[in-house]
């Protein structure tokens, strides 16, 4: 695959990779009030890494994410569960939300809900799942890379 | 009492850490806990003789109305002195048995838990709490038997113990629930004072007895006890004398006063007790391994105890209590002796051992005392117990009492014979020169350490002391008896009751047993010529193997591994289960074509793509067409004004196609042509039916809306309570957050599953190959 790498695709992907990641974060953070959310954000991030994989194969993918995909899955689950349990510890029901408002010095006042952290968990799990699929399904391409390549 | 039980747990928790600093001295720390239990027991015993049983209650599961009741009374004191008293000695003994092996921290902690759970078992007043402690002893004994986990025999022996006692425990739980529901209470003291009746109780009692018989290794469930011999000897010593196997006897003893008159109780207990007594003793005479010899002896002694409690007359319950104590003392000592021999000479085979008697005179004399106590030779404690037993079975007045007497007498003769076999085999001269190139093992055996022998000497001393001065132990036995039966006893333990029938039987037993031992070669040849019945071990092995084979066959049938068949079954289930009621009861929905011309246009494209996907030859084309259908769906969402759904759908389709393409690298480019036209027809039928079903189901679902819609409420509360203006997102992460949590769990599990499947198809790496080969070779 490395020999048949397309320079144009490579450059395009490099150009939009970080923009896509930023977009995914934007979707995640703004999701509570505008279209988006953890699920969509996670999918956009997955697409960014998917493009990376299509352009540069396994190496490019592992270079762009040094963390194993299973870690994303695990940390995501942990995020979701811990957010749910914090309200439990505070004496409320499991996963009861509370509104967080904070005055940031320069950026002005911010108001969001504690479920944002839960949404981050969703984001991480979705991303972890896609990375794992890319890693595992794409890994065996050494011997038959000329077949079925789009 | 709760603090006492918790202290076992607390100290067990810190023992592994302590063992790193203290080495084997950690056992002395552990011994402190049962010692404290002994001190508490004596103090509390003083209290209960004045003011009656002590009760303690704690709320356990308030939602179910469960309370954890503990009760301390006369019989519990007898059990406590066995469990805690022998526990102290076992810990002291363990300190010499081990040499700072790395397992000792774990071992000491598990042994302490074992001890604590047995103590909890005898103190528990609630049936369910009793069951809990009962299972705890099973689990901790499993861990103890398999403590040397690199040995295959230890692991399989432990598993066998766990399976058999666990099965019995489950049966017992069923019995307890039936009894508790019939009586309306789970408190043992209340239940036993007002025993329920009826046919349900009969079934319950049988189930409880299965639990008791498995735990006490009664025939035909006895096979786990000899296999448990793979445990380190301190465990065997404790398990055989005071804990675990006595639990079944304890249960029968508690239940007997309430249920002895119940038609099935007495015959069942007496039959299985007597069978165990005879079979155990008979098989004990064949053993060459000292530990196995004693293990079969335990089965026999437990059978006698079962029988005594099962007979359920006042005299026999008194005799049972006495035997429980006497057996605990001599059996613990005997196993400790075997442990010393094994530790110093590295063998337990009586054919190899020889000359130990001359080498270790003190140990040999001690062994003589405890073995004589087991055989029932005066003036030892075992003799008192055996005499009480013979007197009790002689006075039952049952129609078939003579059979029981004869059985007990024969069993006792065999007991005398195997006691002599034990003593002679361990300390006498070497018997048969089987291992020619090996010297008499005993001749060069190093002397055991003083602290190693001290617990045994103490137990032997108690056997003599209680035999000569029965008045010392009489109050304990009497109060245990009184708490069981509910009336004071006029009976007293005594060395000399005058010329009675029991005395004559005792004399007969000793003489006949001695003769059996004297003529042992002839006895062995007779035993060898007997036809071999299938052993319980054989039955167990067959059962386990049969279970595995059946499970294998069932799995092979249900999980045949063909993807088309799995898919077909899933789809057919989906069609049939909701489809049939839908057709029979569903209200015909109103149908309309579209809300806007754009929907018609997009819908048309989607239908064309879907049809094309179904007839596509190449996989890649099919996936692209399916992706196009998905994009069409996203377009429909946009038309309906649902941007969130549209974004997600679009992304999912994109990523889905990418993942499909990756997966297709491993498959041929074209779909395989179906070989059988008939299956092709079936596939088409299932596919068309599924499509029709989904179509119809969606229509019905839209038309079936009867209640007011909840979306208005969601819209109102999304900002005020959820703090977000995007209602869809607020629903996903907040209002229905629990669903989302479930969904991401599914996602994570599915991803891991795919990874596992892909990995399973890959050729193993060099390291894995090597590991596999090493496993196959070993």
Furnish the topology, listing elements before pairings.
The complex is a heterodimer of chains A (150) and B (778).
Chain A lengths: L6 H24 L7 H27 L4 H21 L9 E6 L3 E6 L1 H25 L11
Antiparallel strand pairs in A: 1-2
Helix pairs in contact in A: 1-2, 2-4, 3-4
Chain B lengths: L1 H21 L3 H26 L2 E8 L4 E7 L1 H24 L6 H20 L3 H19 L6 H32 L4 H6 L5 H17 L8 H4 L5 H9 L3 H15 L5 H20 L5 H22 L2 H32 L10 H4 L1 H15 L5 H14 L6 H27 L22 H19 L5 H12 L15 H18 L1 H10 L6 H23 L4 H23 L11 H19 L3 H22 L2 H22 L12 H27 L7 H10 L6 H9 L1 H25 L4 H12 L1
Antiparallel strand pairs in B: 1-2
Helix pairs in contact in B: 1-2, 1-4, 2-3, 2-4, 3-4, 3-10, 3-14, 3-19, 3-20, 4-5, 5-6, 6-8, 8-11, 8-12, 10-14, 11-13, 12-13, 12-18, 13-14, 13-18, 14-16, 14-17, 14-19, 14-20, 16-18, 16-19, 17-18, 17-19, 17-21, 18-21, 24-28, 25-26, 26-27, 29-30, 30-31
Summary?
Chain A has 4 helices and 2 strands, in the order H-H-H-E-E-H.
Rg over C-alpha atoms of chain B, rounded to the nearest angstrom: 36 Å
Largest contact between chains: A-B, 58 and 47 residues
User: Average pLDDT across residues of chain B?
Assistant: 86
Q: What oligomeric state do the depicted chains represent?
A: heterodimer
Largest sheet of chain A: 2 strands, antiparallel
Distance between the termini of chain A: 12 Å
Percent of residues in beta strands of chain A: 5-15%
Shape call of chain A = globular
Average pLDDT reading of chain A: 79
Overall shape of chain B: it is elongated
Helical amount of chain B: over 70%
Q: How large is the radius of gyration of chain A?
A: 19 Å
Number of distinct helices of chain B: 32
What count of helical segments of chain A does DSSP give?
4
């Amino acid at each position: 695959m490395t020999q048949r790498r397309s320079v144009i695709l490579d450059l395009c992907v490099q150009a939009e990779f970080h923009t896509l990641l930023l977009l995914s974060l934007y979707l995640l953070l703004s999701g509570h009030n505008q279209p988006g959310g953890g699920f969509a954000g996670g999918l956009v991030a997955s697409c960014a890494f998917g493009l990376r994989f299509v352009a540069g194969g396994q190496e490019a993918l592992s270079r762009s994410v040094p963390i194993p995909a299973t870690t994303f899955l695990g940390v995501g689950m942990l995020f979701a569960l811990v957010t749910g349990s914090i309200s439990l510890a505070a004496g409320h029901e499991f996963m009861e939300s509370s509104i967080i408002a904070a005055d940031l010095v320069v950026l002005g006042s911010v108001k969001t809900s504690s479920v944002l952290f839960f949404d981050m968990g969703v984001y991480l799990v979705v991303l972890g799942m896609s990375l794992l699929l890319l890693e595992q399904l794409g890994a065996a391409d050494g011997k038959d890379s000329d077949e079925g390549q789009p | 009492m709760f603090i006492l039980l918790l202290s076992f747990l607390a100290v067990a928790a810190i023992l592994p850490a302590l063992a790193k600093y203290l080495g084997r001295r950690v056992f002395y720390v552990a011994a402190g806990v049962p010692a404290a239990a002994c001190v508490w027991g004596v103090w509390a015993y003083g209290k209960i003789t004045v003011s009656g049983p002590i009760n303690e209650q704690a709320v356990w599961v308030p939602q179910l109305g469960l309370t954890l009741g503990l009760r301390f009374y006369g019989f519990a004191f007898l059990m406590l002195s066995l469990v805690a008293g022998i526990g102290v000695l076992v810990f002291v003994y363990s300190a010499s048995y081990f040499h700072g092996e790395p397992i000792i921290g774990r071992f000491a902690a598990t042994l302490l838990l074992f001890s604590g759970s047995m103590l909890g078992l005898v103190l528990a007043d609630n049936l369910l709490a009793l069951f809990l402690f009962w299972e705890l002893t099973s689990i901790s004994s499993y861990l103890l038997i398999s403590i040397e986990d690199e040995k295959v025999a230890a692991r399989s022996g432990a598993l066998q113990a766990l399976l058999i006692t666990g099965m019995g425990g489950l049966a017992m739980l069923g019995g307890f629930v039936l009894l508790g529901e019939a009586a309306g209470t789970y408190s043992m003291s209340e239940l036993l004072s007002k025993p329920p009746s009826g046919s349900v109780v009969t079934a319950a009692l049988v189930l409880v007895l299965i639990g008791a018989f498995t735990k006490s290794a009664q025939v035909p469930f006895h096979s786990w006890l000899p296999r448990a011999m793979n445990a380190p000897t301190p465990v065997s010593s404790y398990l055989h004398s005071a804990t675990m196997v006595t639990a079944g006897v304890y249960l029968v003893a508690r239940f007997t006063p309430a249920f002895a008159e119940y038609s099935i109780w007495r015959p069942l207990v007496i039959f299985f007790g007597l069978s165990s007594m005879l079979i155990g003793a008979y098989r004990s005479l064949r053993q060459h391994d000292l530990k196995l010899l004693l293990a079969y002896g335990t089965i026999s002694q437990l059978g006698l105890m079962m029988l005594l409690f099962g007979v359920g007359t006042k005299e026999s319950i008194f005799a049972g209590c006495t035997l429980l104590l006497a057996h605990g003392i001599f059996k613990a000592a005997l196993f400790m002796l075997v442990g010393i021999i094994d530790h110093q000479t590295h063998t337990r085979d009586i054919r190899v051992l020889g000359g130990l008697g001359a080498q270790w005179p003190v140990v040999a004399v001690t062994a003589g005392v405890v073995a004589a106590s087991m055989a029932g030779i005066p003036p030892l404690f075992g003799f008192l117990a055996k005499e009480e037993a013979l007197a009790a079975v002689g006075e039952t007045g049952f129609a078939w009492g003579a059979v029981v007497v004869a059985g007990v007498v024969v069993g006792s003769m065999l007991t005398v014979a195997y006691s002599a076999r034990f003593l002679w085999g361990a300390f006498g001269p070497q018997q048969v020169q089987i291992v020619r190139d090996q010297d008499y093992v005993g001749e060069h055996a190093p002397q055991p350490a003083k602290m190693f022998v001290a617990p045994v000497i103490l137990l032997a001393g108690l056997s003599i002391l209680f035999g000569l001065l029965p008045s010392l132990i009489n109050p304990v036995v009497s109060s245990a008896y009184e708490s069981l039966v509910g009336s004071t006893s006029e009976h007293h333990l005594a060395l000399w009751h005058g010329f009675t029938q029991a005395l004559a039987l005792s004399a007969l037993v000793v003489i006949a047993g001695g003769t059996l031992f004297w003529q042992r070669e002839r006895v062995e040849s007779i035993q060898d010529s007997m036809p071999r019945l299938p052993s319980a071990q054989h039955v167990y092995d067959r059962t386990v193997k049969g279970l595995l084979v059946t499970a294998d066959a069932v799995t092979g049938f249900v999980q045949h591994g063909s993807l088309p068949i799995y898919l077909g079954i899933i789809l057919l289930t989906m069609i049939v289960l909701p489809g049939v009621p839908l057709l029979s009861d569903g209200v015909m929905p109103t149908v309309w074509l579209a809300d806007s011309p754009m929907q018609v246009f997009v819908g048309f494209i989607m239908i064309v793509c879907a049809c094309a996907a179904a007839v596509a030859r190449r996989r890649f084309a099919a996936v692209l067409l399916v992706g196009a259908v998905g994009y069409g769906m996203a377009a429909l969402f946009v038309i309906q004004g649902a941007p969130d759904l549209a974004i997600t759908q679009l992304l999912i389709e994109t990523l889905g196609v990418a993942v499909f393409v990756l997966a297709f690298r491993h498959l041929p480019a074209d779909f395989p042509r179906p070989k059988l036209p008939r299956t092709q027809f079936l596939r088409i039928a299932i596919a068309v039916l599924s499509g029709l079903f989904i179509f119809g189901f969606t229509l019905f679902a839209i038309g079936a809306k009867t209640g007011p819609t909840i979306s208005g409420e969601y819209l109102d509360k999304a900002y005020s309570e959820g703090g977000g203006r995007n209602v869809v997102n607020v629903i996903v992460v907040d209002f229905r957050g629990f669903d989302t949590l479930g969904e991401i769990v599914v996602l994570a599990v599915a991803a891991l599953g795919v990874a596992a499947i892909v990995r399973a198809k890959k050729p193993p790496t060099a390291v894995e190959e090597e590991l596999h080969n090493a496993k196959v070779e070993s």
